[in-house]
Each structure stands twice: as C-alpha cells, then as structure tokens.
Amino acid sequence: MTNRDLLTSPLTTLAACAAAVVLMAGCSSMKTPATADVAVSRAAVDNAASAGAADLAPDEMRSAREKMALANQALKDRDYKRASELADQAQADAKLAQSKANSTKATTAADEINENIRVMREELNRANQQAAPQQ
Amino acid sequence: MQKSTYTTIPGLLAMAALVAACSSAPTTTSLLDQTRGDYMAAQSNPLVSTYAPREFREASAALEAANAAADRRDDSEKVDKLAYLAKQKIATAQEIAKQKAAEADIANAGKQRDQLRLDARTQEADQATARAQSAQADAEAAKAQAQNAEASLRDSQARAAALQLQLNDLAAKKTDRGMVITLGDVLFGTDQANLTGDGTNTARKLGDVLKNNPQRTVLIEGFTDSTGGSAHNLELSQRRAESVRNALLDQGIARDRIATRGYGAAYPAAGNDTASNRQLNRRVEIVLSEDNTAIPARR
Lengths: 135, 299
Hints:
The complex is a heterodimer of chains A (about 140) and B (about 300). Chain A is mainly alpha-helical and about 140 residues long. Chain A has helices spanning about 5-10, 10-30, 30-50, 55, 60-75, 80-130. Residues about 25-30 of chain A have low confidence and may be disordered. Chain B has eight helices and five strands. Chain B has helices spanning about 1-25, 30-45, 45-50, 55-70, 75-170, 195-210, 230-250, 275-280; strands at about 175, 180-185, 220-225, 260, 285-290. In chain B, helix 2 runs parallel beside helix 5, helix 4 packs antiparallel against helix 5 and helix 5 (about 75-170) runs antiparallel to helix 6. The interface of A and B includes residues 85, 88, 89 and 113 of A.
C-alpha cells in the first residue's frame, strides 16, 4: 500500500471522522478536562494526606476535601465548569496543606538539631572550664 | 452670556471625565486586596526568591490572572475565584520557602554538629595529653623530692657525724637535758672569770659546733665550790658563764641562742671535802639543745 492508498482508504477516513467527532464532543461538553482536573486534584489531596497534612494543616485539608466532594457532585450533575473550578481550588488547598505540613516537619527537625547543638556546645564549654584549672 | 458659556464647558468636561473614570474603574474585592498584600509580603521575603522561585512565578501568574479579570471588570465572584487560587499559591510559595530554609538550616546544623563532635574529641585527647603530662611532671617532682630528701638525709647524717666528732673532742656527755660539755676550773684564771688560752680554744670549738648546727641553742651554767661567801660565789659563777658567752659572741654566734645562769655553790658535782673535789665543783657546764628544742630546766 502506498501513501495515496492510505489517504483514500475508506477505513482510514472513517477512523479520522470518528476521532474528530469524539474530540469535538469532548470540547463542547468540557467533560474530559473537568474529569482530568478532578483526578489531578484527588492526587494532590492524597499526596497532602500522606505528608501528614491532616494533622499538620487540618484547616486547609478540610477545605480541600470539601471542595473535592463538591467537585465530584458537580461532575455527576454534569456541571463541568463548576467541577473544574472546584477541582482547581481543591488542588490549591491541597498543595498549600502539603507545603505547610512539610515546612512544619522541617522546622521541627531544624529546631531539634539546633537544640542538640546548643546542648553539645554547653557540654563542651563545661568540659573546657573544668579542664582550665588543671592546666 | 459669554461668561457662562466659558464656565459651563469646563464643568461638562470635568463631569464627563468623572463619568468615564467611574465606568472604567476595575472590579475590586476585599479578597483581591488581601491577596495583593500577601503577594507584596512574599515578594519582599528573600527566602521566597531564594528557595521557591518557581512557586512564586506560578503565584504571580495566578495573581495576574485575577488582576486581569478585575481590569476587565468581570463580576466579583469570578475575580474572587481567581484571587483565591492566587492567595493559596502565594501561601504555598511561602511555606515551601520556609521548608527549604529549614532544610538548609538542618544541613548547616549537621556540619556544625560534626565540627562540635570533632572539637569534643580533640578536647578529650588534649585533656588526656595534659593529664599524662601532669602525671609525668608529678612523677618527676616526686623523684626530685625523693632525691632532695635523700640528699638532705645524707647531709644531716654527715652533720651528725661531724657534730659527734666535735663533741667527742669537747668531751661532751649525753644527759637527759642534752649534750653537756664541762669546762673545768683550769680553763679560768684562779678566782677569776677570764678564760685561759685553753679555755678560749674550747670556746672556739663550741662556737664551731653552734655555727654548724644553727638549730641548736646553748645554756651556759656557772658553778663554784662552797668556799667563800655565797654572794661572791654567785657573782663569780655568773661572770664565768658570761665570759664563755662573750667568747661565743666574738665568734659571731647570735645572742638569742645563748642563755647564761650562775648557780654559785649549788648543784655541786662532787663533795667539797677535798681540794680535788672542790676543783671539780668549780666549773662551767654548757648544755647543748637538740634541734629546735628548748633546754629543760635544771631540777
């Protein structure tokens, strides 16, 4: 088969037409992007949850989950514009929750190590002062 | 009415301008204002530009979208939706900056901790070295002290031996009051206090003993026989004791190391019945103290 044959083949033409129809249908209904937005936001919420955001950023986490629920409801109601908007907001909330959880953990760890250092330095100074009179 | 035309035209123009300004005023919401404030704070936080530049760019883009909607005079609900997204993204950039700064702090603190551990080990090693050196110095000091003690023992043994020789020469007798050297009557002029040549020699030997044994003191006691008045005897015995003292003072012996007593005819060494016994009673006894010890009184 040559290229010309491919283009003129009735089967190929039919497939191209079908694809165009599906794409057009997706665009007009906004169903596909809204579904994708909701899926991305769900992943963001899951990530935040596994970073411990439920404990460390409870307000943002609650907000993200509520908006996820509303976005899912909007999907069911085929209000795809609202579903996308809610999904975007849920994603922003989830990302903030995750970053809050991470910064809290890092700050706590930094405080701990700095406290360790302070204690070590004190011990070192004490040892120095005890050694001084001997020398 | 020309005047009123001139005043009316600028008035109309001003009103037109005001109306135009009103109609072109962008939509404002309190959430958007708040978000702009958050944005300014993030922009002036150096940690954000250092640690979260990508997140801050995303937040900037989100705010621009909200601002554009406001400029288009979109309804406040739409502006608020965009402002909310921008606000959350700005907060996210702040949190990520905080996290990265804390992580950098941890990395730096880890280095500091390693350095401190090293310092602690160095200090322990230094202290161990110092202790070892101190112990060695102590050992050397102890050794030196032992050598000194040994030398001082040898020295005192030598001095004791020399003293013994000198005392033997002076015919010293050991008594419970100390060594006693007796200077007989022949060492003084007859019924006089002055020392003869032999007496002076004896006093010089005694002076040598005192010079070599600076811790010792002497008590010089004078005695007579029972012949003659007791006042005379007391005075003679005292003068004889003092002339021995003067001989010692002449040799440079300190006055406070020499005490004298005159006893007259008291404490006779023999009976006063024969001439030779009386001669034994006419005497001066010199009591030599032990080192740093007072001489006990005569009983």
